[in-house]
Amino acid sequence: MKISIRIRSDTLRGMRADLARPHAHAWERVGFMTTAATASSSELLLLVREYRPVADEDYRRSTRVGAEIGSEAFRKALQWAYQPKSALIHIHAHHGTGKPNFSGTDFRSGREFVPSFFATLPRMPQGMIVLSDDSATGLLWLGEHETPLKVDHFSQSGSNYRRDWMVL
Amino acid sequence: MNWLDRQSFLGADSDRHLADLTVAIVGLGGGGSHVAQQLAHVGVGGFVLADDDRIDESNLNRLVGGTRKDVDFGARKVDIAVRVIRAVNPNARIDLAPLQWQEAANQLKNCDVVFGCLDNVRGKDELEAFCRRLLIPYIDQGMDVHSVGDHFLVAGQVLLSMSGGPCLRCLGIVTQEALAAEGRNYGAAGGKPQVVWPNGVLASTAVGLFVGLVTPWHPSLGGGECLEYDGNAHTLHQSDRMARLRGRPCPHHPVTELGDPGFDVRRLVLAGPIAEIDSRYDVPNRWWVALRRWLLMRIGA
Predict the structure, then answer these.
(1) Can you tell me the ipTM of this complex?
(2) Does B264 touch chain A (CB under 8 A)?
(3) Do A36 and B263 lie within an 8 Å CB cutoff?
(4) How far apart are CA B285 and CA B278, in angstroms?
């Protein structure tokens, strides 16, 4: 089964601009996307509804990784994704071009917090995405105890239709 | 020499981008048959062809690729389109849906762009709504011949419908009156008047909008397009109504109404092997491998 994520170009543009804003003490900004979903026999398709940034005050200092987002950020995101029922996708950006990779810290922390979303949103897949300046990499969980799957395709629909997440 | 060399101005890697795309054509009659032929020439690599109809005598005046022999055999319109596409691009990926498009929804979901070449208002309305829910750009074309006194007017339009932009209802192409009139005439004998050249003009315009959408050969205004055709004056012009509505949100298809409202991942049947996770993300496994290697070294194995 292939996994695809489609987004409106204006949503993507706004999200990239937001994630590029500097923060007082966090090196990387974080946000969440909510998505709808549909499936065929060969593909699971996620459709991005909205993006929201994590509020400045919901970052907390961490001796281990510099800064991290606190439980209040997750609570707000889950409440937001609850109605209409949405997949919740954690998103942040790394600088550079080409296909980005999650860092070991990204993956370790994601494997803890993403499966916890299923307690509130059991009907929807959940995931995390990292952006580079011109591309994206994503992991999607289909269940709390499932192995995460790679997102195969990213596409955007706007003044141009593209099968990538470059900024138009 | 590559068969697409003469269109390299469409952009770097445009051949590959076009080949990677999968485009649905819903309705393969007078309009859709032109679209299929042109998309094959442009180099689109994947097609979903949806039409439950077979060619008959009255289609021969406009169905591109249709032959007398096809009429004699009662060939399916999807098969005629396959023949036309394969004659240009034998390697095209073609997924057939000789069904009502609603029965082929799963095939359409995976498409990058959908062309609506239907001759009924309700069908256009429903297909556009389907595409809006899936953020799929939808390109609609339609033409009509109207009797005015002792002569006829040929008119039509091509619409590129994008999420958030004006839709067929916003532009007055789908109206309650049109839907009601179509309902009253449902099942009436005889087809609407149709001829080949307006279909050709509209299909070429639709393909032009498509190429502008998927390649960077010229800047697009965004938010969709609507072009109106006057078949008597042989002119196409941008819709005034579209110009007035551009930038205003569409009230008929809210951007938050996406996907399948009854979706439940727990019911998802995983057909076939699922994608493998990239091993470099499997941190504990890497750790265990390193630990195992260290232990083996320590015990001299």
Answers:
(1) 0.92
(2) yes
(3) yes
(4) 12
